[in-house]
Amino acid sequence: SNNSQRVVAFDNDNRITEFRVDGRHNFQVTSDSKYIIFFNIKINNSKIPPIIDLTKFCSTNEKGNVTLVFRDNKLRVSKELLAIHSSIFASMLFGDSVEKDKEDVEIKDVDYEDFIDLLQFIYPCLLDISDRSVLFLLKLAYQFKMESVLNKSEKYLIQSEGIDVVKKLLFADQYELASLKDYCLNIYPRKCLLQKVKSSPEFTSFSAKMVAEIEPVKSSSKPNIDVTKFCSHGMGNIILVFGDNKLLVSKEYLAVHSPVFAAMFYSDFAEKKKEEVEISDVIYEEFLDILQLIYPQSLEIT
């Protein structure tokens, strides 16, 4: 029947415990009541990971090894290897912690396969960082304070084109990656970046401190400016109008520094004979900064 709906469910021994199909699949029932299912499978990645020789993580000196327990999995590893790369393991295995003299040490809230990949990464030429692996490498390296892994992961994230800038910023926030944070804050205008962060699903995961750093830099209060220094000592002055603000300036000085003003004041433009000239779409305070910049010793570039 096209209305039947069944699923396939397996127990821990890979035995089928439930079977279900729906009308989207073609199926038929044979004489011995077995289902034959025809469906399409899309293979996203056909690369099969190699079988890992776990003995390479052990020390040749058996006394220098410890067994790490990840729920149902155990892993024999070298104490020295872990201690060299992780200050957490150095303290745990060689400090005054209770784990120091234990044969088996339980590692909670860590995925067994992810930890094996982490070990492969700290062994030379065994694992490359990828967009997939960098996520758990960061998490574990931060948890166990593996500075070399953190640094390499941070460098990878900076050059990666496959990870969105919002996620990069979140990683920088969660794992205290200063260089990655500075990179993200510099490649995007702050307003655009803040909008992307606030509209993303990850927004609630950002710290208040990071959100404050993403906020556009507000201009500091400027000292009072003596606008009379922009006038001509002779008759060559004109009033520029910026909305509700007016500014008396020297025609000659503007013309020397700007071909646009030179044409406006000394060519056949309508503004040539006007006493007041409206300057549209220009902010008054920003134009003052421009004038201070072209007047000697008035303003430094920042």
UniProtKB/TrEMBL annotation:
Domain BTB: 64-131, 236-302
Classification via Gene3D superfamilies: Potassium Channel Kv1.1, Chain A
One protein family per Pfam: BTB
InterPro entries: BTB/POZ_dom, SKP1/BTB/POZ_sf
Protein known as: BTB domain-containing protein
